[in-house]
Write a structure and sequence with these properties.
This protein is mostly helical. A 4-stranded mixed beta sheet has the order 2-1-3-4. Helix 1 packs parallel to helix 3 and helix 5 crosses helix 8. The N and C termini lie far apart (43 Å).
């Protein structure tokens, strides 16, 4: 299988963590690309987004949610996405919340990087800050059960990938003080090989952008 990948995407990282946790990494080769690469990406994903996966049968799958659901049928271990019942919907709900956190963080970053600065919408950034705050609080509630010993699930993988993006792009964001259960769980998850081996890095040949600052008064409300 071939995974169209990137160096910093939290959605790609979610898939890569999933591959390691399920022992599927050796079956998948990574092809680093970007949305501007029409010749490589568009044939697999008409939306021009990553990640995209080409299966052994030549089937193109996208986005990360669909890819991980497919990969969960390709290994012999316990399912990380339950096949049915209340557990399935809880895991998928958590994944959606984590992806929403990554969405808001990415949208905020892109807006703040607009040039000239006169084009930046403070209202839009405030809306993303609000989404980030409440997503973190929601995930903090989920983490209570994870700290109590709930088994590994795909919702945790998605959460780790989203928080990894927050740390990578907004290292000064003081979310840990407001979300102690989430911070405690994240510290433990960060020690897993699947997390350490998938750290985001700046693409070769590109200058390293400084982490974005957040307002001094920012808080999880």
């Amino acid at each position: 299988m071939h995974l169209l990948s990137s160096y910093t995407s939290p959605y790609v990282r979610k898939v890569k963590i999933f591959l390691i946790e399920t022992g599927l990494s050796e079956r998948v080769s990574e092809v680093y690309t970007n949305p501007a690469d029409e010749q490589i990406l568009r044939p697999l994903n008409p939306l021009g987004k990553i990640p995209a996966l080409e299966t052994d049968e030549g089937i193109a799958l996208y986005d990360s949610t669909v890819i991980c659901a497919y990969l969960d049928t390709q290994h012999d271990g316990p399912r990380l996405i339950p096949e049915s019942g209340a557990g399935r919907w809880q895991v998928l709900r958590t994944e959606s919340l984590a992806d929403g956190l990554a969405d808001a963080a990415n949208l905020r970053r892109n807006e703040a990087l607009r040039t000239p600065e006169s084009l930046i919408s403070r209202e839009f950034i405030d809306r993303q800050d609000h989404a980030i705050s409440h997503a973190l609080l929601g995930l903090n509630r989920e983490a209570v059960g994870w700290n109590a010993g709930e088994k590994m699930c795909h919702g945790q993988i998605a959460t780790a990938a989203a928080l990894g993006y927050i740390v990578f792009r907004y290292e000064t964001l003081p979310w840990r003080a407001h979300c102690p259960d989430l911070a405690h769980w994240f510290e433990r998850f960060s020690a897993r090989d699947s997390f350490r081996l998938t750290l985001p890095v700046n693409p070769p040949g590109r200058p390293v952008p400084p982490p974005q600052s957040v307002p001094p008064e920012w808080s999880v409300v």
